[in-house]
């Protein structure tokens, strides 16, 4: 048995997912090595999976290429119907999916359930969008010609997803690809591959033909990434992860001028102006900072608060943060789960030490919890200076630095003073200020008087070194389509 009792005891229908090692295409040679997946809250072994290599990836690509013509030739309605069936199956088993997600990633079960619903929403959205792939006619310069534009699938897509949202990121990438008529090879993060495996298990039941969806389990991403980027049969790479890895993949894709969609790192500012509703800003900051234990690419990383409301905000925010309970995600009273691994724990500890040495004041938290698991107290630090690491680097954990500011124009300049441009947030009530700040912030997404803005109906993505392209919305579908111009003469 490849899935252990420590996972299956949480499942209502364990028979559906008990052998996730068999989910990768059965026609791909079984990997000789295996790797283990652990629960970050308890350290328990959850599963042992085949550790696939570049040779396995190459075989999966060949399988995908063979399936591309058939899948791309289906009508939009046929593709839509298959996506709808997959959507319904995932909703019908949403409690089991949430349990798998909590076990392998650690987030609280309520957050896991929300993520599964969000993943299903992407499948539903693109099942609908599949029927809205339109071309156009162009007025020709002479009467003996007709000029048309049609859209066709890009072809085989390689997708690489991160560990922090292992269900919704899979759905956000592959559902538009499938709707457009593309086939997919997916490599999920090695820390959280089980939700992807469970999704693919139900994809078989939904009726996707062999070779349309191909899953790669691997403990190391380097060889998989190189094969996906260098193999000429892969026409597009979609990646979510760090900017450093994004740069590497971009270089590897450059020899073939391969199409890419990258959603990379962030360093999100959260600005509270003196005309803001402070209570609403506190609530928004809790959502934007501590969802998924701060392990989100759009997490509020720098909290700027104007002097007139700084003390009130800091006091109310600290009270809320101190009340957040940390623990195993299966505990219904827990609001924050563990960090994903020891490296993440070491990073947040280093950021706290650096801030304290440079004059920061810990208002709440600041310490690791226990000796087992990777739990860290939700932390608030004030008296933050620009020289501190927490003001310059993405922490990716439950640490909130509050930075006092006076000048509204200067804070926008400081917020923009980063190579990243994924997400930003601000709270204000003056309409003139709202428009001016929203347009001045150099970010692909701006939350105004809200701490949450992700939706399958909206374009998700960033500027500068936070990525290329958008996911979600109708714009996310365009990334998987080629535009072809047809000029018909002799008419």
UniProtKB/TrEMBL annotation:
Tell me the PROSITE patterns matching this sequence.
ALDEHYDE_DEHYDR_GLU
Where the record annotates domain Aldehyde dehydrogenase, the positions are 30-485
Q: Name one GO biological process term.
A: gamma-aminobutyric acid catabolic process
Q: Which NCBIfam families match?
A: SSADH (TIGR01780)
Regarding protein family, the annotation reads: Belongs to the aldehyde dehydrogenase family.
PANTHER family reported for this sequence = SUCCINATE-SEMIALDEHYDE DEHYDROGENASE, MITOCHONDRIAL
Tell me what this protein is called.
Succinate-semialdehyde dehydrogenase (NADP(+))
Q: What is the lineage of its organism?
A: Bacteria, Pseudomonadati, Pseudomonadota, Alphaproteobacteria, Hyphomicrobiales
């Amino acid at each position: 048995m490849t899935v252990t009792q420590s996972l299956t005891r949480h499942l209502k229908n364990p028979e559906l997912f008990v052998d996730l090692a068999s989910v990768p295409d059965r026609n791909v040679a079984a990997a000789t090595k295996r790797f283990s997946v652990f629960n970050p809250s308890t350290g328990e072994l959850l599963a042992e999976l085949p550790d696939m290599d570049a040779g396995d990836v190459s075989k999966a690509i060949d399988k995908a290429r063979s399936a591309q013509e058939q899948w791309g030739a289906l009508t939009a309605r046929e593709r839509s119907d298959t996506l709808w069936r997959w959507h319904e199956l995932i909703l019908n088993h949403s409690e089991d999916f949430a349990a798998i997600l909590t076990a392998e990633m650690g987030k609280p079960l309520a957050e896991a359930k929300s993520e599964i619903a969000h993943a299903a929403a992407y499948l539903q959205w693109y099942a609908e969008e599949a029927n809205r792939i339109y071309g156009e006619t162009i007025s020709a310069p002479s009467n003996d010609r007709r000029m048309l534009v049609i859209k066709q699938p890009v072809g085989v897509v390689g997708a690489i997803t991160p560990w922090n949202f292992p269900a919704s990121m899979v759905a956000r990438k592959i559902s538009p690809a499938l709707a457009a008529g593309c086939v997919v090879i997916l490599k999920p993060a090695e820390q959280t591959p089980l939700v992807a495996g469970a999704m693919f298990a139900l994809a078989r039941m939904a009726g996707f033909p062999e070779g349309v969806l191909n899953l790669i389990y691997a403990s190391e991403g380097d060889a998989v990434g190189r094969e996906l980027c260098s193999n000429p049969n892969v026409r597009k790479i979609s990646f979510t992860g760090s900017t450093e890895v994004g740069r590497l993949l971009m270089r590897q894709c450059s020899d073939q001028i391969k199409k890419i969609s990258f959603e990379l790192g962030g360093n999100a500012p959260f600005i509270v102006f003196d005309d803001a509703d402070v209570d609403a800003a506190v609530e928004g900051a809790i959502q934007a900072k501590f969802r998924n234990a701060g392990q989100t690419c759009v997490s509020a990383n720098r909290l700027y608060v104007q002097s007139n409301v700084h003390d009130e905000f800091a006091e109310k925010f600290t009270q809320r943060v101190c009340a957040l309970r940390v623990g195993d995600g299966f505990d219904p009273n827990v609001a924050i789960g563990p960090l994903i691994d020891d490296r993440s724990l070491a990073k947040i500890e280093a950021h706290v030490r650096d801030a304290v040495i440079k004059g920061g004041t810990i208002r709440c938290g600041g310490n690791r919890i226990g000796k087992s698991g990777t739990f860290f107290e939700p932390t608030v630090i004030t008296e933050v200076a620009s020289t501190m690491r927490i003001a310059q680097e993405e922490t990716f954990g439950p640490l909130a630095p509050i930075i006092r500011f006076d000048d509204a124009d200067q804070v926008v300049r400081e917020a923009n003073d980063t190579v990243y441009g994924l997400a930003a947030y601000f709270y204000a009530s003056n309409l003139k200020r709202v428009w001016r700040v929203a347009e001045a912030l150099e970010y692909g997404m701006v939350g105004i008087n809200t701490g949450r803005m992700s939706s399958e109906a909206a374009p998700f993505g960033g500027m500068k070194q936070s990525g290329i392209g958008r996911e979600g919305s109708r714009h996310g579908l365009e990334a998987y389509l080629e535009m072809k111009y047809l000029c018909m003469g002799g008419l």
